[in-house]
From TrEMBL:
Residues 181-250 are annotated as: Disordered. Coiled coil: none annotated. Residues 6-79 form the MobA/VirD2-like nuclease domain. Residues 188-215 have a biased composition (Polar residues). This is Mobilization protein.
Amino acid sequence: PEDKPRLTDEFMAKIALEYMQMMGITDTQFIIVRHHNTDNPHCHIVYNRINNEGKLISDRNDYRRNEQVTKALKSKYGLTYGTDKSKTNTRKLRNAERAKYEIHNAVKDALKMADSWEKLRSELAKRGVHLEFVYKDKEQAKVQGIRFSKDGYSFKGTQISREYSFVKLDARLGTEYNRVSPRAESMQGGQPSCHQVEQTQPTAEHTQDPWSGISSIGLFAPSNAQTYEPFPEEESAKKKKRKRRKGFSL
């Protein structure tokens, strides 16, 4: 809302076109539609992923590129960063997106009361949020990450906020959870069935309401909107694969 006086149709269209250029969305059919039905000025970009030469426009790592591009544009034009999700009107959101914001607010409030993982899990349960640990191996000897679940939707900690990754929360709680036997803690018992929500998988409402998917391009989304942050182990495995591919054979 702070930027509303500046966001004329012309200025918004200019930013949208620059965003598309930086994201590699070029030489293709597209439309830009502005909405006036909320307090936050925003627009939707719809484009054909098959360009005018019949080639597919890549969406590889679009979540990371989107974050980099939006931050660059915000800095270039002095736009306001959305940092406080607690002010979001969740009643206007749908299904998975609403659950994500409610989880964010629940974790934020629970952390004010929690000084341990058990306390955090207890406080989240009071708010209808389930905390689940993701383990690196079948023996459950080491925690790799965490998930939060609500209303049948499950998100990685980093999908809610980068501040809610296992590493950062563990450092904050100061309990060094990985030194405790996960079997003794029995943190995995009795899980409800949840829809696993990943950045690369569209939720069901996207197929019913095309505008839901369109807005996910993220031009005026908060800077901490859904982003997938691979675990260090995954990144290490990818680097090893790349090194093997670079080898020469006779």
